Amino acid sequence: MAERVGPGDVVGILLPAGAQLLVSIFGTVRAAAAATILPVTAGDAGSQARKLRRLVDALGLRFLIAGDGVHGRIAAELGTLCPALTILATSVDRPTGALPPVAPDDIAVIQLTSGSTMAPRGAQLTHRNLLSGLASLTTTSDMTAADVLVHWAPPHHDMGLIGMLVNVLNGARTHTIPSYAFVRRPETLLTLLAETRGSGNLPGDGATAILLDTNPRRYALAAIASAGRPEAKLQLFADYAPVKPVGPQPPGRSLHSEAIPVMRECIRAVVGDVLDHAGLAPADPRIRVTLFSRLGRTLLRRVFLPGLPAGLPDALSLTAETGHLGAGDMIANISHVIDNQLLDPGQYALGVSIGMGFTATAALVRSGPPEADYRLVGPSA
After folding, report:
1. What is the mean pLDDT of the chain?
2. Is the dihedral of CA 201, 205, 206, 209 positive or negative?
3. Taking the complete model, does pTM exceed 0.70, yes or no?
4. Most confident of 198-202, 234-238, 303-307
5. Cβ contacts of residue 247 below 8 Å, gap of 6+?
6. Which among 167, 190, 206 is the end of a domain?
7. Which domain holds residue 283?
8. Is 363 exposed, middle or buried (0-12, 13-18, 19+ CB in 10 A)?
9. Contact 228, 123 (CB under 8 A)
10. Contact predicate 120/300, CB 8 Å
């Protein structure tokens, strides 16, 4: 506020995950401005600054909060490239005077896309969007103040930011490690989970793939398929979109009739892909067990399980074991099959995992003799 940051401004944040990042986010949004966390990737400070300059121009940034170290060096380079950009330090005095009013539909955060397939783009999230999303994640994941989140995703990533915020706002503990440390040594994440007795982790698809062991074993991944239905995103809960909800549900918990069939069709499509690849019908007796994301029973029964093709074994309910683990649900479910020796040689387990976006992944695991020559394969669809 001392630097005249106020309503309508977009403030870039160039900080690692930690207390200063949270202070900067909360301070920015309470000043009635919008916060956007800028990505720090591989490369020297000059090359990263040149990439970020496009975001500064596209978002109309006039202010940037930056830390020390590599983030400070990038900010200095960016300030040279963008003379109109004001660099703010993280250690500032408490402002005096009245705080500006903030309305539920004011922009709180501009979430950047990953940039993996095209230049990053900004999605505008209002205070209402953000708080409804955090509340929904808390409810569906059964998160409490007793949880301990071990986090590696970078804060500019949606899972990095939202995953951290939902745990902090629940009053729970969060431990973070730099993303580059996880990529270089994935076991660092597992070690920290054990040391902190972590109850949750948001690995994402890439981290899940890094942690998976694809060497020949008795259990092999016979097929895997993923699909997305972006037209259904942010439509599950009433506060997300202006669609008439189904039934007299409490605020923020109402289900949208337009999104549910789209999500069910997505689930049906990925399950059909893996079954077709393996030459199996849903009622094939070799499919011994079906496992679904570890979500609440009501949500599974009312929304997601009806998307499974008829004929499959009833899905096991394993939510009580761990609660929702995000992308880790698939790993935990497959581990349950292996640890409890649920499959005889030649039998299959079908795992299905869903995520907001809306996305669905189906994986078919086959059991066979230990000496079998297994290969990691996936459907062509």
Report:
1. 79
2. positive
3. no
4. 303-307
5. 254, 255
6. 206
7. 214-367
8. buried
9. no
10. no
